[in-house]
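pinned: reference chain
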Amino acid sequence: MPSYSDVQKAVNVEKRRLWFAWLAGGLILLFVARAVWVFSPTGGMIAAVVALLLFVLLSVTAYRMHQALNRRADRERREVLGDDYPG
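pinned: its structure tokens
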């Protein structure tokens, strides 16, 4: 059975990976939208709107995954600590 520290470290690593992927995805969307805008102002407006919608979806997904990790960590902590868990 893993210790409390092992569970916390694993969850923190997963959260860092999640938010790094969110940042990288946001930057890629920004770069693509800007590149399309430079080559075609009309198409650029469409690309900017699509990029904004995708960014919102990416943010919602990242937040939901973050909350799922919190729930998983809570379950694991309860399993490791048993009745000593304050939550």
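why pinned: The radius of gyration is 19 Å. The CA atoms of residues 18 and 62 lie 7 Å apart.
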